[in-house]
Amino acid sequence: MRKQFIKGLVVSSALLLLISCKKEEPAAPAIDTNQIKEEIQAKENEFADTYNAGVMKEIGYFADDAITYPQNNQPVTGKEAIIEYLKAHVDSISKGRKISFTTNEVFVAKDGEQVVEIGTYKVVDSTKSVVNSGNYMTLFVKKDGKYYSLRDMSTSDLPN
User: Fold this and answer.
1) Is the pLDDT of residue 102 over 80?
2) Cys-Cys link to 133, which of 10, 27, 110, 122 (CB 3.0-4.6 A)?
């Protein structure tokens, strides 16, 4: 009986030692939602400035495998195809007009690697009259420390 007690004590001690040596998971880094919102708004401002200049070029907005869902059109797949689509439509959409984007909300994944942005856009003519406005959602993914649009879609809130 004494041997069983000692054996039990040794086994219990070993289990207790194993349990107490369990490494604690490192805490996830704190996510600053306001900073991310500002970063996303800055990307939207750069996109609007580029678009308003009428010169569509690579500015680091879209991911290589991005898909955009333009209004009243089929989805456009791939960064290069999206840039070509925008180039083809920049004159008809922005000539004499200015677009602006406002990031209203961001929903950040716990690891900060993905962000869903919900925002509004407004297009004004040379007299500052609103000619189009609406809402959009964009899914951003982080690559090499920067966010890129992976999916986006928008809808106008003006009647046809």
Assistant:
1) yes
2) 122
